[in-house]
Amino acid sequence: VKQLTFLSPRELEWREVAEPRLGGETEALVIPIAASNCDLDTWIVRGSTPFTGPFAIGHEFVAKVVEIGAGVADVNVGDVVIVPWKVFCGECEQCRRGCTTGCTSFGAMSMYGLPLGEAWGSGLSDLVRVPFADRMLVTVPSGVSPEVLASASDNIPDGWRCVGPQLRARPGSEVLVLGGGGRSAALYAVGIAVALGARRVDYVDHDADRLRIAEDYGANPIETREPPAALGPYPITVNHSTTPAGLQCALRSTETGGTCTQAGILFEDAPVPLFDMYRAALTVRTGPCETRTFLPDVLDLIVSGRFDPTPVTSEIVSWADAPDAYARLKRKTVVVRD
Ligand SMILES: [Zn+2]
Ligand SMILES: [Zn+2]
Fold it and tell me: How far apart are CA 79 and CA 66, in angstroms?
């Protein structure tokens, strides 16, 4: 089977790999039918991360189930499903409390499409093995196209986790989102915050396209290349920039008792204003997105028509064109199997 492989900056190719087979009765084999780039992939293909090729790339995908083990009960052959980026068992203590990232049945960061833990292949391949099908897979709701949900494996629920639980705790709050690094996830956070009834959503970025999308979602665009020392303050802040200045702005812009989600990935240490954070009694969250935990809320928002992720999509291409399309990633490229 063919698998999209990152070789070096802006150089990708389809590589032939061994066909995955069921490894146990809880497993399923799926054929990806719509896939998209995570924001991190955009930086990988530009050579702006520590990741060096070759490795299988791609961890956002919707797939069709083609084979299931004897112990799979909730998933059937023919189902169209969202496959979370993270491989997990759903049964260990960590998984049961919603921390699939900490699943103890697999090595740390075992996932699709990135060489961070045990390798599970790419969502841009002809066949993918899912170890705990009942626990991991989520059926695509009827009436929603797979390409709309290609990014539901990671970046769309990433948008949710930055603002959803926070707005539930403090309904109607004003929200600040700094974009630019997590190019799509920041915009999903904006759209979801508006959909959930935030009184005001301010979006900071330097890119005219992204500022326009944020404005179309109902946010107030703030155009700047270098974030100021502080804005607001806001009860809810989100840093999806990938600069120390963005991180510091988000932290200093969070009002006393507020929450800041540090979602944009910085690969190096960055100074943080610890005493300001102490005085403001901040709650700061960081880390990857718990996709499976948040997907029910995300799908509810999309199915009800309150949130539409499609304005964030920059390009839809055919499966064969994935290597070329990935070499020029901008925001959200969706690859659809013909
Ligand atoms: Zn990702
Ligand atoms: Zn687990």
Answer: 8
Kindly give the distance from the C-alpha atom of residue 93 to the centroid of ligand 2, in angstroms, as a whole number.
7
Residues at Cβ < 5 Å from ligand 1 ion: 38, 40, 154
How far does residue 39's CA lie from ligand 1's centre (Å)? 6
What's the 211 CA to ligand 1 centre distance in angstroms? 22
pLDDT of residue 16: 98
Identify which ligand lies nearest to the alpha carbon of 158: 1
CA distances from 189 to 74, 105, 321 (A): 30, 31, 29
Q: Which pLDDT tens digit goes with each residue over 149-177?
A: 999 999 999 999 999 999 999 999 999 99
CA 252 to chain centre: 25
Q: What angle do CA 45, 299, 25 make, to 5 degrees?
A: 80
Ion ligand 2: protein residues whose beta carbon lies under 5 Å: 88-89, 92, 95, 103, 105
- Centroid of ligand 1 to alpha carbon of 70 (angstroms): 31
Separation CA 29–CA 130 (nearest Å): 6
* Model confidence pLDDT, tens digit, residues 92-150: 999 999 999 999 999 999 999 999 999 899 999 999 999 999 999 999 999 999 999 99
Nearest ligand, measured from the Cα of 103: 2
* Tokens coding 263: 């979602």
Is the pTM above the cut of 0.85?
yes
pLDDT-flagged residues of the chain (< 70): none
Length of the chain in terms of residues written: 338
Please tell me the number of the ligand nearest to residue 40's CA. 1
Tell me the residue type at 198. Answer: A
